């Protein structure tokens, strides 16, 4: 009697609680393992190899670096702890987000003063939030399983229109500490939500993970999002 293969498990190579929550609300209960990638070094190496990077390319470089770092450590580091993993076949997903404003790419602010300066530049204006996604199909392939060995990625970009907030509102928001934790110094699903007038594109992408793009990447390796639902 042949046993049906178990459903694969998605491993998120990110510490972002917002990304994990986005997946959970979509029916996916991801495992989490955080990469140890030096982001500045990864971008410097990519620029040395390819030249100047567009913002949409920079986030893709980092997403790939993060997920491939975790994939290597799964093989090479016997002490790597992945809570909740029971040996299921894995798909690994890395993400990285940055805000593009005036042609510059903005990650997390360095400190509170940097966050205030960001908001002084952003308020009343529009920027583009780019999130790179990189998927690694780590399922057994060939006679051992349905895996493709695929490693592929793409970037989702969403236009964000910021409110013309006051100095007092900026000071109060920065004092909460939230802007220091996120790319672009803002959230759309948290305390920063009232300061975003509207968006053009995928709302989930601004949170940090585009569900429509994830669906597309899964399709490239022969899977659907329901295949990852935890029943």
Question: Short description, anyone?
Answer:
The protein is an alpha/beta fold.
What does the model show?
The protein is α/β, with parallel strands linked by helices and 231 residues long. Helices cover 34% and strands 22% of the residues. It contains seven helices and seven strands, in the order βαβααββαββαβαα. The protein has helices at residues 17-25, 39-50, 55-76, 112-122, 167-175, 203-207, 211-220; strands spanning 9-12, 31-32, 90-101, 104-106, 126-137, 151-162, 196-200. Strands 1, 2, 3, 4, 5, 6 and 7 form a seven-stranded mixed β-sheet that branches. Helix 2 (39-50) crosses helix 3 (55-76) and helix 4 (112-122) runs antiparallel to helix 5 (167-175).
Helix amount: 25-40%
Radius of gyration, Cα only, in angstroms?
A: 19 Å
Strand content: 15-25%
Broad shape: globular
| Number of contiguous helices | 7
Distance between the termini: 24 Å
Q: Which series of helices and strands comes N to C?
A: EHEHHEEHEEHEHH
Given as residue ranges, the uncertain stretches (5+ residues, pLDDT < 50) are none
| Average pLDDT for all residues | 93
Provide the structure class: alpha/beta
SSE layout and pairing:
Blueprint: E1 9-12, H1 17-25, E2 31-32, H2 39-50, H3 55-76, E3 90-101, E4 104-106, H4 112-122, E5 126-137, E6 151-162, H5 167-175, E7 196-200, H6 203-207, H7 211-220
Parallel strand pairs: 1-2, 1-3
Antiparallel strand pairs: 3-4, 3-5, 5-6, 6-7
Helix pairs in contact: 2-3, 4-5
């Amino acid at each position: 009697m042949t046993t049906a293969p178990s459903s694969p498990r998605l491993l998120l190579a990110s510490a972002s609680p917002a990304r994990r929550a986005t997946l959970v609300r979509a029916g996916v209960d991801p495992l989490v393992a955080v990469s140890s990638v030096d982001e500045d070094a990864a971008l410097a190496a990519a620029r040395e190899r390819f030249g100047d990077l567009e913002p949409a390319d920079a986030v893709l470089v980092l997403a790939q670096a993060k997920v491939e770092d975790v994939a290597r450590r799964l093989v090479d580091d016997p002490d790597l702890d992945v809570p909740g993993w029971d040996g299921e076949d894995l798909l690994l997903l890395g993400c990285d987000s940055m805000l593009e404003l005036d042609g510059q790419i903005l990650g997390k602010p360095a400190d509170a003063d940097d966050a205030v300066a960001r908001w002084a530049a952003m308020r009343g204006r529009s920027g583009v939030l780019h999130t790179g996604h990189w998927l690694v199909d780590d399922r057994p392939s060939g006679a051992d399983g349905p895996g493709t060995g695929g490693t592929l990625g793409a970037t989702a970009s969403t236009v964000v229109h910021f409110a013309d907030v006051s100095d007092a509102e900026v000071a109060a928001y920065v004092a909460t500490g939230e802007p220091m934790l996120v790319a672009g110094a803002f959230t759309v699903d948290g305390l920063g939500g009232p300061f975003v007038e509207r968006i053009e594109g995928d709302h989930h992408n601004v949170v940090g993970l585009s569900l429509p793009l994830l669906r597309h990447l899964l399709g490239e390796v022969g899977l659907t999002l329901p295949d990852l639902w935890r029943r």
